[in-house]
Every structure is written in C-alpha cells, then in structure tokens.
C-alpha cells in the first residue's frame, strides 16, 4: 500500500475541526436512526461472515470441482438459518421454565434477605433480591419482542445485500468518476472486509468452543438452565474484555441462588474461569494474531462509546466498527494521526 503523506500542521487543524463537526453529526444520526441502522449493521456483518464461509466452501473443491458461488452462498445462508433456529429454540424452551422458576427463586431470596441469615452469601443474595424486585418483567418481554423484530429485519436484509455485492463495485466506480478514487474506496472496503472476516471467523469459532466447554462445566454440577447460560456465554463472548466476565458472573450468581453453599459455587467459578482464561487469553490470540492491530485501550474506549450510542448491539459491533474507522482514517491525510493512535504499534 502506498504511503499516505502527512498533512501540514494548518491543514491538519482544519481537517480536525471539520472532522469533529462531521463526527458530531454522524453520531447524532447513528443515535436517532438506531432502530433502522442496527439491523442493517448486523446484516452487513452477517454478509461478511457468510462470504467468508462461502469462500471456505469453494476452496474445499469437493469431488475435485469448485462449488458454484450461488450454491456456496445458499449453503452458507442455510447454515445461518439453522444456527438461528437452534438458538431461538433453546432460548424459547428455557424461557418458559425460567419464568416458572422465578417465583421460587424470589421466595428463596426473600428468605435470605438478611445478610446475617445467609452467611457467606448474604450480601450477594440481598443484592440479587433487590435486583429481582426492581426487574420490569413486562419491559423485558417488550424488549425481547423488539429484538425479535430486529432479527427478522436483519435476516430480510441479508439476501438482498448478497445480491448487491458484485453490482456495488461497478456502482462505486461509476459514482466516483474517472479520478481513480472509486478503486481506492473498493481497496479500503476489501481490506476492512478481510480484517472483519478473520475477526468474526475466529471469534465465532472460539465463542462456540467457550460455550460448549462452559456447558460441560455447568451441566455435571446440576446448574439450572445450563443451556441458557451456555447460549449467553456464546453471545457475550463477542463483547470485548467484559463479555467473558459477565458470562461467568451471571452463571455464578445463578449458582449462589440455587445452591446457597460455597463448594459448588467455587467449583463452577474455577471451571468457568479456567475455560475463559485458556480460550480467551491463549487460543484466541494465537488464532487471531495481530491482524486487527488495535490498541487494547482503544478497544475499551470504543466499547464504551458504541455501548453509549447503541447499547448492547453497539457493544457487540464495537470492534468491527473500530477496524473500519481505522482503515478509513489511514487513507486520509488529515486523519492518519488518529489511525496511528487507534493502532497497536503505530503502523497503519
């Protein structure tokens, strides 16, 4: 890639001023139109993931022949639908049981309301009781319905985005004109897609392993709704840094309520912590390598920023979004210094 020349100090100041204005308007738009943009953003990521899976299928060449592109994409989409159906069936089956068990847990927490009566678990149980008392069940149900609607929109967008992949290249070149900027846009988009493909592929693989290993720890201990906690572990693992902590904390809180004694809780905490430590700090970095080249501090800052704008979906999308921002800024004379700050080693 050709080196982007640095902008003079005056130009850099003007670019920063204009960039801050554009960023403020952009962030306002992201927040105001989040109900429309969030399903579209997830659909774009699914298209990237499906394209990666389709490319992998085509590279396998079963029976010595390459799989047609349409067949590879259709098979990838079928895998996505089957995964979504498995996810919703597990969660749906568990939610009814969890709703029936909530009064039982509420009674137990009420009995253990006093920290002195519950011994070692008293403060935790009192906090969980207060949290359960403040939980708006109707609001949670409404939110689940809204999320389901967003999921349907996401799945609706995916096939149309797949159909637009190849025509979009010609549209970008035609819209950019004869100065060659269209080719640069396509190049940056291709590099962003390659980085996100690798990130999503590795993250999905490690998240599946983490969910299965966590389930293997929770089920033998007899933890209630182990399947639900395993599915949540898979989803939360996509949130950088704090997702794995939340997954362990939720399952451990369930164990405190269910068992009420330290031995099984400590075993569960040790087992889940070991799974997260090995897969998250050893296996995932080994598979991911340095392909993203993002500063850990900037990952946390972007996680905080995107969570503030889009909530939980923003937390899940924070890393792919930051990768795209870094690659775009690296191509702009006035924004290259921001890309350097976002990177891990200063090389963009």
TrEMBL record:
It is a multi-pass membrane protein. It holds the Pfam family AI-2E_transport. Keywords: Membrane, Transmembrane, Transmembrane helix. The keyword Transmembrane applies. Its main location: membrane. GO terms for biological process: transmembrane transport. The keyword Membrane applies. GO terms for cellular component: membrane. The chain crosses the membrane at residues 36-57, 69-93, 140-163, 200-217, 229-251, 263-283, 303-329. It is found in: Membrane. Belongs to the autoinducer-2 exporter (AI-2E) (TC 2.A.86) family. This is AI-2E family transporter. It comes from Rubellimicrobium roseum.
């Amino acid at each position: 890639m050709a080196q982007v020349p640095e902008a003079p100090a005056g130009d850099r100041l003007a670019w920063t001023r204009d960039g801050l204005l554009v960023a403020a308007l952009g962030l306002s738009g992201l927040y105001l139109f989040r109900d429309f943009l969030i399903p579209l953003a997830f659909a774009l990521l699914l298209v990237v993931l499906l394209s990666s899976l389709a490319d992998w299928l085509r590279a396998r060449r079963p029976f010595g022949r390459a799989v047609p592109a349409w067949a590879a994409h259709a098979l990838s989409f079928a895998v996505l639908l089957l995964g979504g159906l498995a996810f919703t069936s597990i969660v749906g089956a568990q939610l009814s049981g969890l709703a029936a068990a909530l009064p039982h847990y509420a009674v137990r927490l009420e009995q253990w309301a006093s920290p002195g009566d519950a011994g070692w678990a008293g403060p935790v149980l009192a906090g969980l009781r207060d949290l359960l008392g403040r939980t708006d069940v109707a609001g949670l149900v409404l939110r689940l319905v809204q999320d389901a609607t967003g999921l349907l929109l996401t799945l609706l967008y995916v096939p149309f985005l797949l159909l637009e992949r190849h025509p979009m290249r010609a549209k970008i070149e035609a819209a950019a004109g004869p100065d060659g900027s269209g080719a640069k846009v396509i190049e940056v988009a291709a590099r962003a897609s390659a980085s996100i493909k690798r990130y999503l592929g590795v993250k999905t693989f490690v998240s599946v392993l983490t969910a299965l290993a966590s389930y293997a720890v929770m089920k033998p201990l007899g933890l209630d709704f182990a399947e639900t906690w395993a599915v949540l572990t898979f989803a939360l693992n996509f949130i950088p840094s704090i997702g794995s902590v939340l997954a362990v904390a939720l399952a451990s809180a369930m164990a405190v309520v269910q068992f009420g004694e330290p031995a099984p809780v400590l075993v569960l905490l040790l087992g889940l912590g070991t799974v997260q430590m090995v897969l998250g700090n050893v296996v995932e970095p080994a598979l991911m390598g340095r392909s993203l080249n993002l500063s850990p501090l900037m990952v946390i800052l972007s996680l905080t920023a995107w969570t503030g704008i889009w909530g939980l979906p923003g937390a899940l999308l924070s890393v792919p979004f930051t990768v795209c921002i870094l690659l775009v800024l690296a191509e702009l004379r006035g924004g290259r210094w921001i890309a350097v700050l976002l990177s891990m080693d200063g090389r963009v």
